[in-house]
Protein backbone atom coordinates (compact mmCIF):
# COMPACT_ATOMS: atom_id res chain seq x y z
CA UNK A 1 0.00 0.00 0.00
CA UNK A 2 1.11 3.53 -0.73
CA UNK A 3 -0.16 6.99 0.14
CA UNK A 4 -1.29 9.26 -2.67
CA UNK A 5 -2.42 12.88 -2.60
CA UNK A 6 -4.03 15.42 -4.90
CA UNK A 7 -5.01 19.09 -4.75
CA UNK A 8 -7.28 20.91 -7.18
CA UNK A 9 -9.57 23.89 -7.59
CA UNK A 10 -13.30 23.38 -8.11
CA UNK A 11 -15.14 24.41 -11.27
CA UNK A 12 -18.80 24.20 -10.23
CA UNK A 13 -20.35 26.90 -8.07
CA UNK A 14 -24.03 25.92 -8.33
CA UNK A 15 -26.24 24.82 -5.44
CA UNK A 16 -27.03 21.08 -5.16
CA UNK A 17 -24.15 19.89 -7.34
CA UNK A 18 -20.91 17.96 -6.83
CA UNK A 19 -17.71 19.98 -6.61
CA UNK A 20 -15.40 16.96 -6.67
CA UNK A 21 -15.63 13.22 -7.13
CA UNK A 22 -12.98 10.76 -5.91
CA UNK A 23 -13.26 7.80 -8.28
CA UNK A 24 -11.98 4.27 -7.61
CA UNK A 25 -11.06 2.06 -10.55
CA UNK A 26 -13.04 -1.17 -10.95
CA UNK A 27 -9.93 -3.07 -9.77
CA UNK A 28 -9.15 -0.85 -6.78
CA UNK A 29 -10.50 -0.28 -3.26
CA UNK A 30 -8.79 2.88 -1.95
CA UNK A 31 -9.36 4.37 1.49
CA UNK A 32 -9.70 8.09 2.10
CA UNK A 33 -7.69 9.32 5.09
CA UNK A 34 -8.12 13.07 4.74
CA UNK A 35 -10.18 15.48 2.69
CA UNK A 36 -9.94 19.23 3.04
CA UNK A 37 -11.24 22.29 1.28
CA UNK A 38 -11.22 26.06 1.68
CA UNK A 39 -13.20 28.86 0.07
CA UNK A 40 -11.05 30.83 -2.38
CA UNK A 41 -13.17 34.00 -2.25
CA UNK A 42 -15.81 35.18 0.19
CA UNK A 43 -19.24 33.80 -0.76
CA UNK A 44 -22.34 36.01 -0.56
CA UNK A 45 -24.09 33.62 1.89
CA UNK A 46 -23.28 30.89 4.40
CA UNK A 47 -22.46 27.69 2.48
CA UNK A 48 -23.17 24.09 3.46
CA UNK A 49 -20.88 21.35 2.18
CA UNK A 50 -21.12 17.58 2.53
CA UNK A 51 -19.07 14.48 1.84
CA UNK A 52 -20.85 11.27 0.94
CA UNK A 53 -21.32 8.31 -1.34
CA UNK A 54 -23.25 9.45 -4.43
CA UNK A 55 -26.49 7.71 -5.39
CA UNK A 56 -24.84 7.14 -8.79
CA UNK A 57 -21.25 7.49 -9.95
CA UNK A 58 -20.53 10.28 -12.42
CA UNK A 59 -20.58 9.24 -16.08
CA UNK A 60 -18.13 10.35 -18.78
CA UNK A 61 -16.03 12.68 -16.64
CA UNK A 62 -14.63 15.41 -18.88
CA UNK A 63 -11.86 16.37 -16.50
CA UNK A 64 -10.02 13.69 -14.49
CA UNK A 65 -6.68 13.70 -12.72
CA UNK A 66 -4.95 10.75 -11.04
CA UNK A 67 -3.60 10.97 -7.51
CA UNK A 68 0.17 11.32 -7.18
CA UNK A 69 2.53 9.43 -4.85
CA UNK A 70 2.76 11.15 -1.48
CA UNK A 71 4.96 8.84 0.54
CA UNK A 72 7.08 6.96 -1.99
CA UNK A 73 8.33 8.55 -5.20
CA UNK A 74 8.90 5.07 -6.69
CA UNK A 75 5.31 3.94 -6.01
CA UNK A 76 3.26 2.63 -8.91
CA UNK A 77 0.88 5.04 -10.62
CA UNK A 78 -2.35 5.57 -8.71
CA UNK A 79 -5.49 3.85 -9.96
CA UNK A 80 -7.70 6.42 -8.21
CA UNK A 81 -8.67 9.68 -9.87
CA UNK A 82 -10.69 12.81 -9.20
CA UNK A 83 -13.17 14.59 -11.46
CA UNK A 84 -14.52 18.14 -11.43
CA UNK A 85 -16.76 17.92 -14.53
CA UNK A 86 -18.86 15.16 -16.11
CA UNK A 87 -21.14 14.31 -19.01
CA UNK A 88 -23.60 13.20 -16.30
CA UNK A 89 -22.73 14.35 -12.78
CA UNK A 90 -22.79 11.98 -9.78
CA UNK A 91 -26.12 11.73 -7.97
CA UNK A 92 -26.76 13.40 -4.63
CA UNK A 93 -25.85 11.18 -1.64
CA UNK A 94 -28.83 9.81 0.31
CA UNK A 95 -26.81 10.47 3.48
CA UNK A 96 -23.61 12.37 4.14
CA UNK A 97 -20.61 11.08 6.10
CA UNK A 98 -19.67 14.69 6.98
CA UNK A 99 -21.39 18.10 6.70
CA UNK A 100 -20.33 21.61 7.61
CA UNK A 101 -21.54 25.20 7.31
CA UNK A 102 -18.94 27.80 6.39
CA UNK A 103 -19.40 31.52 6.91
CA UNK A 104 -18.92 34.26 4.33
CA UNK A 105 -15.15 34.66 4.58
CA UNK A 106 -12.43 33.65 2.15
CA UNK A 107 -10.16 30.91 3.48
CA UNK A 108 -12.84 29.22 5.57
CA UNK A 109 -13.16 25.46 5.11
CA UNK A 110 -12.72 22.12 6.79
CA UNK A 111 -10.33 19.21 7.09
CA UNK A 112 -12.04 15.89 7.60
CA UNK A 113 -9.80 13.08 8.86
CA UNK A 114 -10.62 9.38 8.82
CA UNK A 115 -8.03 7.66 11.06
CA UNK A 116 -8.97 4.15 9.86
CA UNK A 117 -9.78 5.28 6.34
CA UNK A 118 -13.16 5.75 4.67
CA UNK A 119 -13.54 2.87 2.21
CA UNK A 120 -14.26 3.62 -1.42
CA UNK A 121 -15.53 0.44 -3.06
CA UNK A 122 -14.15 -0.79 -6.37
CA UNK A 123 -15.74 1.16 -9.21
CA UNK A 124 -17.49 3.55 -6.81
CA UNK A 125 -16.81 7.06 -5.57
CA UNK A 126 -17.16 9.75 -2.92
CA UNK A 127 -18.31 13.30 -3.64
CA UNK A 128 -17.78 16.68 -2.04
CA UNK A 129 -21.28 18.11 -2.48
CA UNK A 130 -22.32 21.77 -2.60
CA UNK A 131 -25.50 21.52 -0.52
CA UNK A 132 -26.60 25.16 -0.18
CA UNK A 133 -25.76 28.70 -1.22
CA UNK A 134 -22.41 27.93 -2.77
CA UNK A 135 -21.21 30.91 -4.73
CA UNK A 136 -17.47 30.50 -4.49
CA UNK A 137 -14.69 28.35 -5.85
CA UNK A 138 -12.88 25.91 -3.58
CA UNK A 139 -9.35 24.66 -3.09
CA UNK A 140 -9.70 20.93 -2.38
CA UNK A 141 -7.22 18.23 -1.36
CA UNK A 142 -7.28 14.58 -0.37
CA UNK A 143 -5.01 11.81 0.89
CA UNK A 144 -5.73 8.15 0.07
CA UNK A 145 -4.16 4.75 0.56
CA UNK A 146 -4.38 2.16 -2.17
Overview of the molecule:
The chain is mainly beta. It has a single domain, classed as Jelly Rolls. The protein is built from no helices and eleven strands. The chain has strands at residues 3-9, 17-23, 31-39, 47-52, 59-66, 68-69, 81-88, 96-102, 109-119, 125-132, 138-145. It has a six-stranded antiparallel beta sheet, with no helix packed on it. Strands 6-1-11-3-9 form a five-stranded antiparallel beta sheet, with no helix packed on it. The N and C termini lie close together (5 Å). 32% of the residues are buried.
Task: Detail the topology: elements first, then pairings.
Elements: E1 3-9, E2 17-23, E3 31-39, E4 47-52, E5 59-66, E6 68-69, E7 81-88, E8 96-102, E9 109-119, E10 125-132, E11 138-145
Antiparallel strand pairs: 1-6, 1-11, 2-7, 2-10, 3-9, 3-11, 4-8, 4-10, 5-7
